[in-house]
């Protein structure tokens, strides 16, 4: 607690006057550090609002400590709630942190700030500070993932001093999150917020159940409903599923943005392989199949210790090779992934790729036969959208070999399956 200062009945890391601090306008911070300062500020506003206090002079006194933390001074808080809504105060801080050019620039931090600026500038009503905290963490998941930004999460906690001199802890954010942390000493709360389990505390036990229900919806073709249920879940599994749903809804711009947002996320081998397969479809549909290369290379490099993930990575590489028209690479990856035929969850993908290769080579009978094998291999394991795609492939293969009646039956079945899907 030595770095904190008492000010009008509240205790918070930002209410400090550290030596050798730098004026906000002069501080040289990375974009992620600037977003971290925004989270610190929202945590402070939540505490002040709860205590019936306000920032006396806005961010005029704001500085950056030698440790990179936002500091507004021990005398920055004043009694009485602010007449300015939280979003207006935070938009002012965004302008001070990023300048007029916040709309320019690349990177996940800049994208996050643009989303926040759009959200808050168009808000039809005052945004509670706790909602602002939730919005920041929803668009900037790196605040959970990077140990060097743990100090910003610590700033979600503070203390309020009562008239009797007693202090009670406060945690910014949704009520359920706060309930999981209160009834502990302040230092223990801050340690939990700074630790690797902070995100699980935020999402709560219901997150795993939500992910399972969202996956079940997606399997039935209800991608829009699955996305809505996922909400702001930020676990690797949730984010992989969200990208797949964006792809299936045809939201290619959102899918590409989500893929970029996953690049620095820690992933298990199967997660990397799944994103490689998704990326190959996203960029092929965008007309730029070569741009899936990052995820394909990463999957091939990082899945060696997981046999199933390794097979999926090679199948994704084979699919990407077909998209590029690279027959040699397609054949090579298909041969190296023959083990997929022994995996009920992957065999259909191998047969689908063999059907595409046979069709390109003019083997129309072989293409139709492999397309039918893909459907049989995937029966009871395919999502509704995947099944529709395979029946569509079979329809094209039959049409090319002159089996128009068979093609019509396949296309009608594909249409019935697609008819039950979102998008």
Structural class: alpha+beta
Structure annotation, total helices: 21
Beta-strand portion reads 5-15%
* Biggest sheet: strand arrangement: 1-2-8-9
Arithmetic mean of pLDDT: 90
Biggest β-sheet description: 4 strands, antiparallel
User: What is the rounded distance between the termini?
Assistant: 53 Å
User: What order do the helices and strands follow?
Assistant: EEEHEEEEHHHHHEEHHHHHHHHHHHHHHH
Overall 3D shape: elongated
Instruction: Report low-confidence residues grouped into runs of 5 or more.
Output: 1-8
- Estimated radius of gyration: 26 Å
Name the helicity range: 55-70%
Write up this protein.
The protein is an alpha+beta fold. The protein has helices spanning 31-51, 86-98, 108-121, 129-139, 142-145, 150-154, 175-181, 186-194, 198-203, 206-219, 223-230, 236-248, 252-261, 269-285, 293-302, 307-324, 327-336, 347-360, 364-378, 384-400, 404-419, and strands at 5-7, 10-12, 22-23, 53-55, 63-64, 70-71, 77-79, 157-161, 167-171. Among the domains are: 5-203, no CATH class; 344-423, Serine Threonine Protein Phosphatase 5, Tetratricopeptide repeat (Alpha Horseshoe). 60% of the residues lie in helices and 7% in strands. A 4-stranded antiparallel sheet has the order 1-2-8-9, with helices on both faces. A hairpin with a 2-residue loop joins β1 (5-7) and β2. α12 (236-248) packs parallel to α14 and α16 (307-324) runs parallel beside α18.
């Amino acid at each position: 607690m030595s770095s904190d200062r008492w000010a009008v009945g509240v205790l918070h890391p930002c209410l400090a006057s550290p030596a050798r601090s730098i004026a906000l306008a002069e501080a040289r911070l990375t974009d992620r550090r600037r977003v971290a300062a925004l989270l610190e500020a929202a945590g402070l506003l939540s505490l002040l609002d709860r205590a019936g206090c306000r920032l006396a002079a806005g961010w005029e006194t704001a500085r950056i400590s030698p440790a990179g933390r936002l500091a507004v001074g021990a005398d920055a808080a004043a009694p009485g709630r602010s007449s300015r809504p939280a979003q207006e105060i935070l938009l002012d801080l965004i302008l001070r942190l990023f300048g007029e050019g916040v709309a320019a620039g690349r990177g996940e931090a800049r994208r996050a700030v643009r989303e926040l600026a759009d959200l808050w500038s168009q808000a039809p009503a005052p945004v509670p500070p706790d909602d602002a905290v939730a919005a920041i963490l929803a668009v900037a998941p790196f605040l959970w993932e990077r140990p060097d930004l743990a100090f910003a999460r610590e700033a979600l906690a503070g203390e309020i001093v009562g008239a009797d001199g007693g202090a009670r802890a406060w945690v910014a954010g949704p009520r359920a999150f706060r309930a999981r942390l209160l009834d502990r000493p302040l230092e223990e709360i801050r340690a939990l917020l700074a630790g690797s389990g902070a995100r699980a505390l935020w999402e709560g036990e219901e997150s795993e159940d939500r992910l399972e229900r969202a996956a079940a919806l997606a399997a039935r073709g209800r991608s829009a409903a699955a996305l809505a249920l996922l909400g702001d879940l930020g676990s690797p599994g949730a984010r992989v599923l969200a990208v797949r749903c964006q792809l299936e809804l045809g939201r290619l711009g959102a899918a590409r943005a989500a893929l970029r947002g996953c690049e620095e996320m820690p992933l298990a081998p199967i997660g990397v392989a799944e994103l490689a397969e998704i990326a190959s479809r996203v960029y092929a549909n965008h007309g730029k199949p070569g741009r899936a290369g990052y995820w394909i290379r990463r999957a091939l490099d990082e899945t060696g210790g997981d046999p199933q993930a390794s097979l999926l990575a090679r199948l994704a590489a084979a699919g990407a090779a077909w998209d590029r028209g690279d027959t040699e690479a397609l054949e090579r990856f298909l041969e190296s992934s023959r083990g997929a035929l022994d995996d009920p969850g992957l065999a259909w993908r191998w047969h689908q790729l063999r059907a595409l290769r046979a069709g390109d080579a003019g083997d129309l009978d072989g293409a139709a036969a492999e397309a039918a094998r893909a459907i049989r291999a995937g029966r009871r394991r395919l999502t509704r959208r995947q099944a529709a795609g395979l029946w569509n492939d079979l329809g094209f293969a039959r049409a090319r070999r002159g089996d128009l009646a068979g093609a019509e039956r396949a296309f009608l079945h594909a249409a019935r399956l697609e008819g039950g899907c979102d998008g």
